[in-house]
Specification:
The protein has a three-stranded antiparallel beta sheet with strand order 2-1-3, with no helix packed on it. The protein is built from 18 helices and three strands. The N and C termini lie close together (about 10 Å). The longest helix has about 45 residues. α3 runs antiparallel to α4, α13 runs antiparallel to α17 and α15 runs antiparallel to α17. About 75% of the residues lie in helices and about 0% in strands.
Length: about 525
């Protein structure tokens, strides 16, 4: 089996691993990716039990928020550290920090401790996703990367479907602390496999980390996430706290952009935005995050409240969307690898995403589970065209020395998109449900949904039939406006897709990648 050589940034040639070694490394990377994606879904199922044991229900939201904030804020920094000092060391460090945070969270004796340890866990998680994508970018040329897209989509589907089921089972039989401890043996396997099999060139940058840029970006991202998390729930959108956070976030991000023009080793080099494809893919990634996480939030809610589905198997409710996404992602990857063409997938994916969201917006109290499953499959097909292609084109649009920064930027934009999607779609949903309940169920309906528009199964079962029917209509009305907004926002992704320039993927047939690669890119050459 022939080996290949890769031309590294400083001119040295580095032996590429044999395909068998690549598969072993990819297996370890997928385990690490699963850790990062599975965690919040497992922990979410255990939250009622955790509150019952530790108390502090008033701080409940911070268990998730602390993790999300730490993950989002650290993501760009991990990408830059990997570019400067070597990806293997940065990735292994992120796994160790994640496992330490998991162990400490499992041992927490109070809600304050749990929140602090979840932040530690989030710091590690920020490096997991970036590390996986950047290492894949190092090991596998973009032209060949499509073969592995189905594997990554499969991990995402497994996390979304299996998370609630695994979390519920562990909590019921082993206790909530094991929802954190379960990460330790899985993470240890990934740690050992990566240490033994992954061989990447060691790097040592002469520069130092841009601490000012890192601090400003952290403040800016934290402010954005808090605005989207608290706005309309903890605080009114027009409240002083939200306005102050918006002001702080804008000031920090403006300062960050200015600092990047002066820094010797900027956290986010602004020159990468000169690539049209990189900028367009960042926009598409933001929109994809906006739409996907909104769908993941509202579809189970609709099916439980309106269609009477069980909350226990909430992950299975998304099966039509996730299976469609996985199959289409696999097909898109194979076609991209065999033809080198990819522009068609963002365009078609955006059209399917718009269509799927519009169909979902038409659901009402009489929509069958079969039809809602068909609508979800359409949306999933759109996601399958977009999820991995965006990362592939993003990495193909920058020099090899910036692969980590590009990967972290794509991950960050998707994360911020999900924060905005959940916040804006959630605000529309809540307002619509409250309005309809007040209109159809009078003062009682208004009081029921005053604090939260989402009622659990126990609360629904106790409602008088007329009030329950009013709530079902209210939820279907709320999902209508939320998904309709999503379909309108998805039009931006379609516009961006039309302007993508089809640049040949590196690692293609002889000579193509040299012509296409940005100046200074490393390319894979057959020996």
């Amino acid at each position: 089996m022939a080996q290949t050589e890769k031309v590294a940034d400083r001119g040295e040639r580095v032996k590429q691993p044999q395909p068998r070694s690549v598969r072993v490394v990819l297996m370890a990377l997928m385990i690490a990716m699963l850790l990062a994606m599975l965690d919040n879904m497992i922990v979410g199922t255990a939250m009622p039990t955790i509150v019952g044991d530790l108390g502090g229900i008033e701080h409940l939201s911070w268990v998730v928020t602390a993790y999300t904030l730490a993950t989002a804020a650290s993501t760009p920094i991990w990408g830059k550290v990997g570019d400067m000092y070597g990806r293997k060391g940065a990735f292994l460090t992120s796994i160790v920090i994640f496992l330490i945070g998991s162990a400490l969270s499992g041992m927490a004796q109070g809600m304050t401790e749990l929140i602090a340890f979840r932040a530690v866990q989030g710091l590690g998680a920020g490096g997991l996703m970036v590390g996986v994508m950047a290492i894949i970018g190092d090991l596998i040329p973009p032209r060949e990367r499509g073969k592995y897209q189905g594997m990554m989509a499969g991990v995402m589907a497994l996390a979304m479907i299996g998370g609630p089921l695994v979390g519920g089972t562990i909590t019921d039989h082993l206790g909530w602390r094991w929802t954190f401890y379960i990460n330790l043996p899985i993470g240890a396997v990934a740690l050992v496999m990566i240490t033994a099999v992954l061989h990447l060139p060691k790097k040592r940058s002469g520069g130092s980390i841009d601490y000012l840029g890192a601090a400003l970006l952290t403040v800016g991202i934290t402010s954005i996430v808090l605005v989207t998390t608290w706005g309309g729930s903890e605080y009114a959108w027009g409240s002083a706290v939200i306005m102050e956070l918006i002001g702080l976030g804008v000031a920090a991000l403006v300062g960050f952009v200015f600092s990047q023009t002066k820094a010797a080793e900027p956290i986010l080099p602004l020159h990468i935005f000169r690539s049209r494809n990189f900028t367009l893919m960042s926009v598409i990634g933001f929109i994809t995050g906006f739409v996907m996480f909104g769908a993941v939030l509202f579809l189970p809610l609709y099916q439980q409240s309106v269609q009477g589905a069980s909350a226990t198997n909430s992950g299975l409710l998304l099966l039509p969307m996730l299976l469609s996404m996985m199959v289409v992602s696999l097909v898109a990857g194979r076609v991209t690898t065999s033809t080198g063409k990819y522009k068609v997938f963002p365009v078609v994916g955006s059209v399917l995403m718009i269509g799927g969201l519009f169909l979902l917006s038409q659901m009402d109290t009489g929509t069958s589970r079969f039809m809602s499953g068909v609508y979800m499959a359409v949306l999933g097909a759109g996601m399958g065209c977009l999820m991995q292609i965006t990362m592939l084109v993003t990495q193909n649009s920058v020099e090899m020395k910036d692969i980590g920064v590009a990967s972290s930027s794509a991950t960050l934009f998707r994360t911020l998109g999900s924060s905005f999607g959940v916040a804006i779609m959630g605000a529309l949903f809540n307002n619509k449900v409250q309005d309809v309940m007040a209109e159809r169920a009078g003062a009682l309906g208004g009081r029921m949904t005053e604090k939260s528009a989402q009622l659990d199964a126990a609360s629904l079962a106790k409602l008088p039939t007329p009030v329950r029917e009013a709530y079902e209509f209210a939820v279907s009305s709320g999902t209508h406006v939320a998904f309709l907004l999503g379909s309108v926002v998805a039009v931006v992704a379609l516009i961006a897709s039309v302007f993508i320039k089809e640049v040949a993927l590196r690692g293609g047939p002889s000579g193509q990648e040299r012509e296409a690669a940005p100046s200074g890119d490393a390319v894979a050459e057959p020996v």
